[in-house]
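[audit] Reproducing an earlier prediction to check determinism. Same input, same settings, fresh worker. If the tokens differ from the archived copy the diff job will pick it up downstream; this log only records the rerun itself.
[audit] input (359 residues):
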Amino acid sequence: MAIEMEMEFEKESPKIYRFPQSKYIDALRWIPSPSSAFDRFISLALHDPDTDSSSIEIHSLTNQNPSLHLESSWTSSSRISALKVSQTPSKTLIAASSFDGSLNLLLTNPLNVVIESENSISDKDFHVGPISGIDLNGGGSECVTVGEDGRVNLVNVGESSLGYKTVFDSHGLVSYAAVKWASPYEFATGGLGFSLQWWDQRKPGGAVSQLKGDWARRSKSGIVHSIDIHPSRKHVCVAGGSSGTIFAWDLRWQQQPILLSWVDAQVGGVNSPSESEVWEVQYDAYMQSQNVSNTSSTRVLPVMMCSEDGILASIEQGGKQVEVLGETSSINSFDIDLQNPSDVVCSLEWESVVFVSRQ
């Protein structure tokens, strides 16, 4: 019997602004800028198929009559596979990994976000092939990278140089697709078969805990594309992947995941706004603020997702789903502005940046 999902739309439709681009957008991220009251900044990872060139561009987004304006750019030697941003009062750091196995760290001026310096790692012993996932810790002092080659590396971000060490190397037996810091010492990884691993630098030698992807027959052939961990609940990891699947892994009860969104063709069950690949998941602070009375410590906080079939939606445990945006092309990446959680930017496969204001 089919499971009916509860799909809701917000009482007031969000304001949507589209900004066409001349290049393919691989990823995008907000750049926090507390010094500017009038503009906000967005980092774009771009690829031009006509010239086979890739770059990172920083654009300002005006608050009045929203529009994008190019502020700074940097050319990459290879197509960018993942993009992250870390901001402190003294610096803004942009990390970009690539399909050729290199990692680039760009330091920008926190006042005008102009790119001032760069450091990179392209050592053949760093990664072989694409780096599929990266994450910067809160202070931007360490970057963790994972790849299809099965390597997990920790990069020490110095003022003028980068050093790294290999935490684990499966020699290709395991492929990782996503990674997320949980604390200064802990992080989670995910990959094929809807598997998740938990790592603790204080306990070297491998993952200290693992969720194997055999918890449901439908999940064996899936893959985790994205992971998020809430800063106040580091023990709960949410993941999104194949066939519209989003689930949470609570380290207090490790054996069984908490399904938030799924499609099960074997029994005809559908409880997902999407039936395709979930490219990215993030905890949705805006929806959390709207549901402050329903945030017990055992309940998974609301999550936002974007998908290959063009859905941007917020999902709550128990089946409630709010569609924020529906497009005819894939939504490849999105980011929630932590300073203004009602605001979201996302990238469309059809070469457009979309700014969504839910206020």
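[audit] rerun output stored. Observation attached for the diff report: The longest strand covers residues 39-48.
[audit] end
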